[in-house]
Write a structure and sequence with these properties.
alpha/beta; single chain; Rossmann fold; globular; about 230 residues; 8 helices; about 25% strand; four-stranded antiparallel sheet
């Protein structure tokens, strides 16, 4: 995506979904996962999606992240309707406008912290100097300057998740989708990750969509949705 294409597609404003339905086919038939879900995640805020296991939280996040297509309904990035984009445009939108953080950080354990963070920048075509500069800025912002040259497998769980967040922020996304990012962390590290996401949202206007089982963190969010049986109930 060149600059003119990117500017033409540049989303501004909330990420939102309208009346999403989604199902999976199994040997015994079709399983309905989402049943008419609508929600909005505004810039500068953390929007949490909580609920019991199997209620459709992660499926909803994957649809918002253009990793799957809904059976019906709409997904918007700002004023842009994106659920029906062609595959190449979906890939470009993910690469330029969406960051992902998961429960399992998926760092390349043999690479250093800075090498993990700069990967998406190099993939996007940035030169090594610019990629290193941006990665160092993020490491500094996240309090990891001293860990830049440490292999990922030598970092603590909390440090690894902060590196994963830095990697997700490397391309300056508009939307950060976090699926149980504190699921493997203790309460202190969980709160630290949440505070980091909150600070980054406020400083950069990032829309953070957080799927979590942690009701304490969900309650701290700017807006909270509770899901049950594929529906938003609160």
């Amino acid at each position: 995506m060149d600059c003119s294409q990117k500017n033409k597609m540049m989303p501004n404003g909330s990420m939102r979904v309208e009346n999403l339905f989604h199902s999976f086919s199994e040997a015994n038939g079709t399983v309905k996962v989402l049943n008419g879900v609508s929600l909005e995640a505004k810039p500068g805020e953390i929007t949490s999606i909580a609920g019991p296991s199997g209620c459709g939280k992660s499926t909803l996040l994957y649809l918002m992240g253009l990793l799957d297509r809904p059976d019906s309904g709409k997904v918007f990035m700002g004023d842009l309707e994106v659920q029906n984009l062609e595959d190449d445009e979906r890939t470009k939108a993910r690469n330029h406008f969406i960051g992902f953080v998961f429960q399992f950080h998926f760092l390349i354990k043999e690479l250093t912290a800075i090498e993990n963070i700069r990967l998406p920048l190099l993939k996007q075509g940035k030169d090594e100097y610019s990629a290193n500069q941006k990665a160092n800025e993020l490491l500094s912002e996240l309090g990891l300057e001293s860990k830049a040259q440490r292999p990922a497998y030598k970092l603590s769980g909390g440090e690894q998740q902060r590196v994963a967040i830095a990697r997700a922020l490397a391309n300056s996304p508009k939307y950060l989708l976090a699926d149980e990012p504190t699921g493997n962390l203790d309460s202190s590290n969980s709160e630290g990750v949440f505070e980091l996401l909150d600070r980054m949202a406020k400083q950069t206007g990032l829309s953070v969509i957080l799927v979590t089982h942690n009701e304490k963190l969900a309650d701290l969010s700017h807006r909270k949705y509770w899901m049950e049986d594929g529906r938003i109930v609160i």
